[in-house]
Amino acid sequence: MAFHNALSIHALFIAHLGINIAYLVHPTTMQMASSLSYSSSFAVVVVFLLLFFTSLCTAQSGTDGYLHLRFYNHERVLGSGPNATVVYAVERRGSTSGAGFGNLIVYDNLLRQGVEPDSPIVGRNQGMGVGSSVAENSGLTILQLVFTAGEYNGSSIAVQGPFPVAPLQTLFERAITGGTGRFRNARGYLWTREVRSTNTTLTGRLDAYITFL
């Protein structure tokens, strides 16, 4: 062991001596190598920081940044006659409502700019809902908000989440999971509040809060 340690110390001494000799013989060369090494390291750090801040700015701004849209869902309710925009796909016997456990409904409602029934049409709310609560007080909805007019014509927003059986003016939230066209890579949430109802119609205010990945 002592012999091995002696060899190691001797080797280290020779290596250190060699470095010092090289520096004495070629001091400019050693300084240039050190300078180049420092410059290369500095350049790598600068490039990394530039890439980091560029990606950070891109993530914060997104494709179109943050977006808030408001429109109104105009529905002709289940059982309102041949013009109903909501129908049963599966009706489980014994259920008391469209949200009855096991029921499946599909719908194709109009999206309008305002709450009035003659307000300009901007698109359609097309989707389905399944009664997923044994208590029959809520359902699971999966839908597409398809724009057929205006700035977002041809684009759509994908939404999913619960739909409670609740009084007018109840606010509830569903997830925005994606989209097409102008809403590609969209994420966010959709607030819904039913604001008006008659024997045959139901009108809800939809507020979409969107960011882009």
Automatic annotation (TrEMBL):
Keyword terms: Apoplast, Membrane, Secreted, Transmembrane, Transmembrane helix
Organism phylogeny: Eukaryota, Viridiplantae, Streptophyta, Embryophyta, Tracheophyta
Compartments, record wording: Secreted, Extracellular space, Apoplast
InterPro entries: Dirigent (IPR004265)
Main location: secreted
Organism: Zingiber officinale (Ginger)
GO cellular component terms, A-Z: apoplast
Name of the featured protein: Dirigent protein
Residue stretches spanning the membrane: 6-25, 37-56
Family according to the record: Belongs to the plant dirigent protein family.
Annotated function: Dirigent proteins impart stereoselectivity on the phenoxy radical-coupling reaction, yielding optically active lignans from two molecules of coniferyl alcohol in the biosynthesis of lignans, flavonolignans, and alkaloids and thus plays a central role in plant secondary metabolism.
Subunit structure: Homodimer.
